[in-house]
Amino acid sequence: MLNYITSGESHNKYMISVLEGMPSGVPMDMDEINHELWRRQQGYGRGGRMKLEKDMVQLTSGYLKEHTTGTPIGILLENSDFKIHKMPEIERPRPGHADLMGALKYQQGIRAVLERASARETTLRVAVGAIAKQLLQHFGIKITSYVYELGNVCVDEKNVSFEDIEKRTKDSQLNCICPESEKKMIALIDQAQKDGDTYGGRFEVRVKGCPAGLGSFATYHSKLDARIAAAIISVQAVKEVGFGLSEELGRIPGSQSHDEILFDEDRGYYRRTNNLGGFEGGMTTGEEIIVKATKKPISTLRKPLQSVNMTSKEVEKAAFERSDTCAIAACSVICEAVVAYEIANALIEKFGGDSLDEMKRNHQSFLNQIKQ
Ligand code: EPS
């Protein structure tokens, strides 16, 4: 099984992660890993920090001759904006951030909390996800995402294909599939910037090529959809997650909800529709995985909300420091990464984790079994 931990603060010198459980023999394309980090830095509405950083990682262990060795992989990223020891303490917690509860619980001030709670930590999660993606490609599994809602603008297109998403998001500044909607979203971000306000948004993550039978109905912790949901919610500022038609399933009858079962000699069992987003009983059905998520607006506001000075206990406006106006495009890329990690973990759990070749043999044998 895979496991990883991240360590590091937003303005400290290094961010590090250790990923254990990757099988041996997986070719690692460092350009591809760093390209994913670049994707995370994009998106209209990002703040000044992204101009200071050129996020790149080094693999410091578990990697030899461009292949994984099957031992723990060390991941190292250096922050250009290293200044944590010179940064002032903050007295006025920002509503929506980890500031208040973190300071009350750990008693080390707000600075110590926000530096770790910052979404800068997701650099490492994207690096881990990029490594996971490199494993997944050997099993024909691909992941993409797109932003479909921001403020009152919504791309309401049903049945957009995976390939269409890949093609139509390519030149987008917001990882969006519709240029007209994107223009309106950008106008909202511009207005928010003028108003000292921020935006979140909604996006979809898709996984194509996942075999049926990953995860299990047997226990709550073996349900793969539950693991994906927890991983997505753990991404900074994500407040909602769903699968397939998601909240719409609460409004329509069963006859319009469930995906009828068909069989074909070549394909095995398959479905005409995919309303449940690729999961039944916590197991993959072999259809595309469709995850939907909502990110709340960035909580650092240039026109701050009311707060309380933690020293004087006087009512004051919350603190402001440099931040983004909108990071929804980055969030969709981050969530691709955390989904990639969960799928890779389930794949290793099912098909064994010593070497890539062994996994491939086990994978093929299972595919033959479920076609009969
Ligand atoms: C982030 C870096 C941060 C913020 C953002 C995420 O940079 P700085 O705080 O130096 O401007 O842009 O962090 C937050 C949104 C947050 O609430 O902490 C990054 O690399 O993604």
3D structure, described in words:
By secondary structure, this protein is α+β, with helices and mostly antiparallel strands. It has a single domain (3-370), classed as 4-Layer Sandwich (Chorismate synthase, AroC fold), CATH 3.60.150.10. It has helices at residues 30-41, 49-52, 99-106, 110-117, 122-136, 162-169, 179-195, 224-233, 328-351, 356-371; strands at residues 3-8, 14-20, 24-27, 57-61, 63-64, 67-69, 73-78, 142-150, 153-154, 201-208, 238-243, 261-264, 268-271, 279-280, 283-284, 289-295, 306-308, 315-317. A hairpin with a 3-residue loop joins strand 12 and strand 13. Helix 1 (30-41) runs antiparallel to helix 9, helix 3 packs across helix 4 (110-117) and helix 9 crosses helix 10. The longest helix is centred in the last third of the chain and has 24 residues, at 328-351. It is globular, with a radius of gyration of 21 Å. The two termini are 28 Å apart.
CATH architecture descriptor name = 4-Layer Sandwich
Name of the level-1 CATH class: Alpha Beta
Biggest sheet features: 5 strands, antiparallel
* Percentage of residues assigned to helices: 25-40%
| CATH fold descriptor | Chorismate synthase, AroC fold
How much of the polypeptide forms β-strand, as a percent range?
A: 15-25%
User: Number of DSSP helices?
Assistant: 10
Bound molecules: ligand EPS
Order of helices and strands: EEEHHEEEEHHHEEHHEHEEEEEEEEHH
**Number of domains as seen in the coordinates:** 1
**Alpha-carbon Rg, integer:** 21 Å
Features:
372 residues; alpha+beta; Chorismate synthase, AroC fold; five-stranded antiparallel sheet; four-stranded antiparallel sheet; 10 helices; 18 strands; globular; binds ligand EPS
